[in-house]
Amino acid sequence: MKKVSAVFFLILLCVFQNLLARPNILWISAEDIGPQFGCYGDPHAITPNIDRLASQGTRYTNAYTTAGVCAPCRSGIITGMYQNSIGTHHMRCNSLLPSWLKPFPKALKESGYYCINNSKTDYQFSKPSTNEIWDQSGSRAHWKNRKKDQPFFAVFNYTGCHESGIASESKYKSVTANLTAKERQDPNKISTLPPYYPDTPAVREDWKRNYELITAMDSWAGSLIKEIKDQGLYEETIIFFWSDHGVGLPRAKRWLYHSGTHVPLIVRIPGQLAGKVDHQLVSSIDFGPTVLNLAGIKVHDNLQGRAFLGKNLSAPRKYVFGARDRMDERYDIIRAVFDGRFRYIRNFEPLKPYYQYMNTPEKGATMREIRRAENESSLTVAGKLFSSSEKPVEELYDIKVDPHEINNLASDSKYLSKIKLMRNVMSNWQSTIGDIGLIPEAEIEIQEKQSGSRFEIMNGKESDSNHIQQLVSVATKASEGISALDDLMRASTSNDPVIRYWAMTGIGNIGKNAGEVAKKISIDAMKDDSPSVRIAAARAVAKFGEIDSALGLLKNELKSPHQWGRLATAIVIDEMGEDARPLVDDLKKVLKIRQPNKYIIRVANRALNDLLGTENQVR
Predict the structure, then answer these.
(1) What is the pLDDT of residue 278?
(2) Is the pLDDT of residue 1 over 60?
(3) Does this model's pTM top 0.90?
(4) How far apart, in whole angstroms, are the C-alpha atoms of residue 58 and residue 240?
(5) Does the active-site annotation cover 70?
(6) Which residues contact 437 (CB under 8 A, 6 or more apart)?
(7) Catalytic-role residue among 70, 93, 115, 161
């Protein structure tokens, strides 16, 4: 009997292997949600369809995105490359990709797959075009439109659980209209509210909405799976379920913490072991290479993502990495590395607060409650950590004992060896990928024209690995304070404007304590050929107390031909507070003149509101 069973199993396995030689592949993706699912152990989740998929497939416990926000992350997913390597790292930008880099659905399409996307793109590049990447992309795109027996790769994206579904009552009600009474949550009974939020009815309402939006998404996902089953394709189709980053609330979305980058990932492959739990580290840039590998298509050697399923796999990851750069109208360069237990974060701009004012998140009820608690001095102990006016240069968290990441171990001598290790791992990663996020955005646009693509600025034929390491080193030293002053002053004479920029940023961070020599260097740097260096120098000069000199330069830079130079200028003016009052009329002119992007207007308006005590709103 055992021999018969073994033979039957082998025959079944052969059948599945033949069926999956060119498997159909379905991606079910969601926006702005973490692993708040029953299968991940959440006590409040009502997610029967995704839980069932997990019971029939593999649930990954250590899947992380490369950013805490959609567009930079999605650019990495479709290319298999870190967004801060190919220049798609800033929220709402348009990068030129290197000629060799092919979005992976295009490779599937060229191999005979019918590839559809329904319907979000948000890739942050315009070439190749959507039509070149997909056979069909839009709300009507469907795998049913393929030729008979043609294998398909289909992406369906759910927008209902986007942060706007929490912030907007009308959207929330529309998305959850079909939920039954049993599928609703009682906000007062929810036990999973993070300790860094004010525990108020408004915040609990947001957390409740998050759960209910996920339940609505689960129903939608179930209908997609049912369509596959109804067509008799369930045993011929590999199904992925994932989210593009964590929950759409403050200190989660846009951030590199567990709350912002830890995502659900479930994969069902017909014929493989059901109900499996896999603890390996997976990065979102691994999704595409994995699909190619499962489809039997060679993965390009230059891709930074790796296949975690299929044949001939490389060694599992030891680390996953994340990057935060410009979020809408505010820059904040942050990098993170996670080894499965410890997360190390490097804040390259520690003098900026955690919660910089940004139009979009400020509209949400939870952010408004945080601001109210700040004003009333009623923040929780954990909440105070993230409402401080500055950030620590380094952060280290032990996820095993501190899942909310509120106990920073970076200054604990017991973890000195871990800090040194993670610091080196991050620095090596930045050097290896060519972290273009260290280059000011205005300078990127200048250098992109010369190099041919943003990736080739740091990774072109003329790129020097030693020079890249020097850039990473100087950018790191810019936040190390007075101990790095000599190195920063030497860096101010570099032939590379980016290194000069970080030298000026670092000197500005030190301020008056940097001394008269550094002050003179900063004043001279306001005549630099690079707009980014000039602006950083003006910021430093202001820190030295030479306000009039700084304002004179910044007034001119508000009219810069470089759009991102204008934004950087507006931000420096906004951060100067009362010292910027002489530029009120100039800021008003910014609002009256057509600007190359809306972010310049947002920052100028915010600066005026602070200076004039107004509450004017702009888009």
Answers:
(1) 98
(2) no
(3) yes
(4) 10
(5) yes
(6) 84, 89, 323, 325, 333, 335
(7) 70
